[in-house]
Design a protein that fits this description.
- The protein has about 280 residues and is α+β, with helices and mostly antiparallel strands.
- The protein is built from two helices and 13 strands.
- A hairpin with a 5-residue loop joins strand 2 (about 90-100) and strand 3.
- Helix 1 runs antiparallel to helix 2.
- The radius of gyration is 23 Å and the shape is globular.
- The termini are far apart.
Length: about 280
């Protein structure tokens, strides 16, 4: 059956119109991601005052993307920002840092959480300067020990999942830090830190390691060992003990092993075949 030319043309125009309407949001989203990425690239060379202004724009743009219903499953690979997803799809972290002109760092981030009713978005507020003993307190999104998270390790403890986060933390012009953080949920509310490190009664809520800014530290998860493997850090001189800005790897390795629902420390790990603690 042949349709009149006018009907065919009308149908074609209608179809093109629908496709164009569908393409506009995608094009707009791409532009927003490109703008975020461009602004993040401007941060290292900007003054502190300009960084603050750029940061407001980044948060506004990013929130517009994360407020969408499909934000937990959408592709963000083209967004030039530190992002890490829970392997089970429970949440997503988006984190970035402001490298200040005096060598210090401020951290920013969003945590997008899957809930029974859909999703919740939390803005993370870095309160590092107000947390003098970072291994002690339990924290929340409004009081966060800022870091750029690069790995999520889900572990079972009883009937719930406990998430361990590995993060990088620029700290000062002389010192860099790595962080082993714990994320749990009370209802749908995220909580940072849990007493899971060590065997004694007084257990750290998170672990923080500092080292010289011109050096690097390995901190990674080995799934075969169920262990977090890391460089052992030592001071460059005995009299500099506890001054983390003068610490660095000494060619040995330590580990935190998941054992009986906790992280147990194992010093001097032989990476050729370390054994789990008993």
């Amino acid at each position: 059956m042949r349709f009149p030319r006018s009907i065919v043309l009308s149908f074609a125009l209608l179809t093109c119109g629908k496709l164009a309407a569908q393409a506009v949001p995608d094009a707009t989203e791409h532009a927003v991601k490109a703008r975020i990425s461009a602004n993040l690239k401007r941060l290292p060379k900007a003054s502190d005052l300009l960084q603050d202004s750029i940061n407001v724009a980044v948060k506004t743009d990013l929130r517009s993307l994360l407020d969408k219903e499909d934000a937990l499953t959408a592709t963000f690979d083209d967004l030039q920002m530190t992002r890490v997803d829970a392997p089970d799809g429970a949440f997503r972290f988006f984190t970035w840092n402001l490298p200040r002109n005096d060598g210090n760092h401020d951290f920013e981030g969003f945590l997008l959480v899957r809930t029974a009713k859909g999703q919740s978005l939390y803005e993370l507020r870095d309160q590092t300067i107000k947390i003098p003993s970072p291994e002690v307190p339990e924290l929340g999104p409004d009081r966060w020990y800022g870091a750029l998270y690069y790995e999520v390790i889900p572990m079972k403890k009883g009937g719930r999942t406990v998430y361990t986060l590995l993060g990088w933390k620029g700290y000062s012009k002389a010192e860099t830090r790595k962080v082993i953080e714990i994320l749990t949920f009370k209802g749908d509310k995220p909580r940072f830190g849990a007493p899971l490190f060590g065997k004694g009664k007084l257990k750290a809520m998170r672990k923080v390691y500092g080292y010289a800014v011109n050096l690097s530290m390995t901190l990674r998860y080995d799934p075969a060992l169920e262990a977090i493997i890391m460089d052992h850090l030592s001071p460059s001189r005995p009299d500099l003990k506890d001054n983390w800005a003068f610490y660095g790897p000494d060619m040995t390795h330590d580990g935190w092993y998941w054992h009986k629902g906790e992280w147990w420390f194992g010093p001097e790990v032989d990476l050729r075949g370390p054994e789990k603690p008993r």
